[in-house]
Amino acid sequence: MKIDKKKVLSTLFFIAVFALTIWTVFSGEDLSETFELLKKADDKYILHGVVCVFLFILSESVIVYYLLHSLEKKAKLGHCCLYSFIGFFYSSITPSASGGQPMQAVAMRKDGISYAVSTVVLAIVTITYKAVLVIIGVAVLIIRPDAVMQYIEPVESIVYLGIVLNVGCVAILLLLVFKPGIVNYFARKSLHLLNKFLHFKNFEKKLATVDRLTEQYTGTSEFYKKHPLIIFNVFMITLLQRFLLFAITWFTYLAFGLNGHSIALIIVLQAMISVAADMLPLPGGMGISENLFLEIFLPIFGETLVLPGMMISRGISFYTQIIICGIMTAAASFILKRKNEQNDIDIK
Fold first, then answer.
1. Which residue among 57, 84, 117, 178 is least enclosed by CB atoms within 10 Å?
2. Using an 8 Å Cβ cutoff, are 60 and 246 in contact?
3. For helices 228-255 and 43-70, what crossing angle results, to 10°?
4. Where do the H-state alpha helices sit in 217-227?
5. Contact (Cβ atoms closer than 8 angstroms) between residue 237 and residue 63
6. What is the pLDDT of residue 6?
7. Phi/psi at 283 (nearest 5 deg)?
8. For residue 298, pLDDT beyond 90
9. Would you state the torsion angle of the CA atoms of residues 339, 344, 345, 348, taken in this order, to the nearest 10 degrees?
10. How far is CA 124 from CA 53, 66, 129, 180, 220, in A?
């Protein structure tokens, strides 16, 4: 059996970052006291958080289903759910969430959806998903509400870095959609420059890959121009989707019987953590997300409860999400494969 070196390296990197995260978060902490506090958390609100994770994932399924049908491509909602589980699983274990969409495109291809169509759908999903985060982050840093800024001031530089990286990502994606020729030109120039130092094997093949990738985004610009109402609807669903994930911290707050701070404040603060960590080259923002939570929410949860609060909030929003999506990704590989085999039988 051939070993996929990229998957092995990605897995090892994930394990290394996870181990470092555990060490930085729990070093010097009294874990027995922390676990005692965790036991006191109200299970009802923890369950609410888990429901939010499911709704967060399934919201993308609704978007994918909606976009595929707007492109007149037949798709089962159940299979769109599988695409979402696959995407979130691979996004969670790869740096900067880079592995999710390629695997989603492969899954869609098994269902007979061409790469040209999946590129349009996934490009819209990605641009909207990141645009919502950018809008929230930029709005907070322009308006600078005192109620929010007093908590994020210690980590404001990291938040600015996150916004710059997210804006850059959205800008590149929009260029790919509306001006693919510009991206193609700079990508080819960059490859030529790198080739002078690295001497790539199959250099012409790499150039052809760049051409093919940029050409795939041509259809996306046409979709944006022809279907502005659909794009708006996708934006609104994505906004709700993002808030569902951020609301997990609110339910964590309630689980410890805390009060005195509004749901709006806690959701916005959690959003700013996502702004800061979303584009950093770490799988699922591991390490940085946990430490930002401990810094930002210390005055809100208090010194005693901030660590168990982080463990529940992050445990539900990220680690539980990985487990759920991992199980469903394994199931999807069997379901989609079986469907393909059935198609082969039908053709014969």
1. 178
2. no
3. 170
4. 218-226
5. yes
6. 67
7. -60, 120
8. yes
9. 160
10. 22, 12, 8, 15, 8
Strand, coil or helix: what is 95? strand
Percentage, residues of the chain above pLDDT 90: 45
Tell me: pLDDT of 315 over 70: yes
Token code pair at residue 287: 């390490």
Which of these, 193, 6, 168, lies nearest to 99 by C-alpha position? 6
Q: Tokens standing for 295?
A: 């810094």
Closest among 87, 150, 164, 157 to 121, alpha carbons compared: 87
For residue 75, count other CB atoms closer than 10 A to its CB.
21
Contact present, 135 and 166 (Cβ < 8 Å)? no
Which residues partner with 283 through β-bridges? 95
Q: What is the pTM of this model?
A: 0.86
| Distance, CA of 95 to CA of 98 (rounded, Å) | 6
Q: What's the pLDDT at 263?
A: 95
Looking at the chain, how many residues does it have?
348
pLDDT digits over 55-112, tens only? 999 999 999 999 999 988 888 899 999 999 999 998 888 876 777 888 899 899 888 8
- Give the C-alpha separation, 220 to 234, whole Å: 14
Contact between 95 and 287 (Cβ < 8 Å): no
At residue 274, does pLDDT exceed 70? yes
Q: How far apart are CA 172 and CA 342, in angstroms?
A: 40
Quote the DSSP letter at residue 153.
G
CB count in 10 Å sphere of residue 229: 8
Secondary structure, 3-state, 281-322: CCECCCCHHHHHHHHHCHHHHHHHHHHHHHHHHHHHHHHHHH
State the chain's mean pLDDT as an integer.
Answer: 86
With contact defined as beta carbons under 8 Å apart, do 207 and 188 qualify?
yes
